[in-house]
Design goal:
With 381 residues, the chain is α/β, with parallel strands linked by helices. It has helices at residues 15-29, 45-51, 72-77, 79-92, 108-117, 139-152, 162-172, 193-203, 224-237, 252-261, 277-281, 298-305, 314-317, 342-359, 362-380, and strands at residues 2-7, 33-39, 56-60, 96-103, 121-127, 157-159, 178-180, 210-215, 241-246, 268-271, 286-289, 310-312, 328-330. Helix 12 packs across helix 14 (342-359).
Length: 381
């Protein structure tokens, strides 16, 4: 099967783009011919370079929604781009087009292009909160444009987990084309004690210290400043605790000022984005995630696959019913005291990895999408 994976090109490092990388790798391993279509913008260089090991990469003249003056309204009204891209995709003659959208309003010109191309297509939407929910400027108009574009799209609209499916159904007023495909990640071999110790030594973390790690962009949605407050509260109870945030973003300066003002630089550190995040996870004792909202975050799935106990805020636990007291830690009540119990952390970590192996492998994700592609092609035959 020839599969065209389309990125709306908001950035190389978000979970949505990581989905394309993992999906392309898994589909290629299943014998499919995969092609990535993405913008020529330099921020997409990293994804393009990493994807090239698994399939063809096409870099196109395309402007992402959030680089436009009027954002989604500009992309919604840009019929010229939609027609040009549709013609390009028809020339490529894929069996199916898989459009990867970060959120409801992202890439509305590409939504139209997929429809105009006449090729079987589906669209994956990772974040389903409306502009009104996010209190965005011109929210009613932006939601109207996104709703109209998605209603006109003829193929399946995919999201995950169940809470996102409900959001999308409510937004559209019709769930007949909404599907769930669970995100998946590679399941690495278990790390041995000597490798774990060596990785910690590289980071300057002693074997007696407790290392909590987070991965994400430093943007309001991920709440890095709440991470700092939580880390400081843990350190006050457990002085041997240390913390690491991996990622960059607009709040980096505020983060540095917060840490500096409290003289916690030896306790809480941040690293710029790296491609070896799974390796960094192998150095940690637990994963700390405090985002305001998510789809099904790849950072959490990678942490589960690494066998890390995931400490998650209650707002996210409510959206992820597969996480429970056996395979994760709820950030509520006297939860900090549980971090001091190494045996308990190891038990939770083992259950977390078993969950990832059973439910969140990228082979399973690829198989589920493969079935949806067949459905799309059959519907258009």
């Amino acid at each position: 099967m020839k599969i065209l994976l389309v990125s709306t090109s908001s950035g190389s490092r978000g979970g949505g783009e990581l989905c394309l990388l993992y999906l392309g790798r898994a589909l290629a391993a299943r014998g499919h011919q995969v092609t990535l279509w993405t913008s020529r913008h330099p921020r997409m260089d990293e994804l393009a370079e990493r994807f090239a090991a698994h399939g063809q990469v096409i870099r196109a003249a395309y402007t992402n929604t959030y680089d436009r003056p009027a954002r989604s309204l500009s992309s919604f009204l840009d019929r010229g781009t939609a027609r040009r891209v549709a013609a390009e995709w028809r020339t490529l003659a894929p069996d199916v087009i898989h459009l990867n959208k970060q959120n409801l309003e992202d890439g509305l010109d590409l939504v139209a292009a997929a429809r105009l191309s006449g090729r079987p297509a589906l669209a994956m939407i990772h974040i389903t909160q409306s502009a009104a929910y996010l209190r965005a400027a011109l929210a009613p108009l932006r939601d109207w444009a996104a709703r109209r574009a998605l209603r006109r799209f003829p193929g399946p609209l995919v999201t995950t987990p169940e809470s996102r499916r409900r959001d999308l159904t409510d937004f559209l007023g019709d769930g007949s084309r909404v599907r769930i495909v669970t995100n998946g990640v590679p399941i690495p071999p278990p790390v041995d004690v000597s490798e774990h110790t060596a990785l910690r030594a590289e980071l300057g973390i002693d074997a007696t210290e407790l290392l909590g790690i987070a991965v994400g962009r430093m943007v309001p949605q991920k709440r890095p400043l709440l991470f700092l407050e939580t880390a400081a509260a843990i350190h006050a109870r457990l002085p041997h605790a240390r913390f690491l945030w991996v990622g960059d973003g607009a709040l980096a300066g505020e983060w540095d000022a917060w840490v500096g003002a409290r003289r916690l630089g030896a306790v809480i550190r941040r690293l710029p984005w790296r491609n070896d995040v799974p390796r960094l996870l192998d150095s940690a004792d637990f994963f700390l995630h405090v985002a305001e909202f998510e789809g099904l975050a790849f950072a959490i799935l990678e942490a589960l696959a690494a066998g890390l106990p995931c400490a998650i805020t209650p707002n996210l636990l409510g959206e992820m019913p597969f996480l429970d007291a056996q395979n994760s830690l709820a950030i509520e009540g006297e939860w900090i005291s549980r971090l001091a119990d190494r045996t308990l952390l190891a038990t939770i970590g083992t259950a977390a990895r078993a969950l990832a192996e059973c439910e969140f492998s990228f082979e399973r994700m690829a198989a589920d999408y493969e079935s949806l592609y067949v459905e799309c092609i059959a519907a258009q035959s």
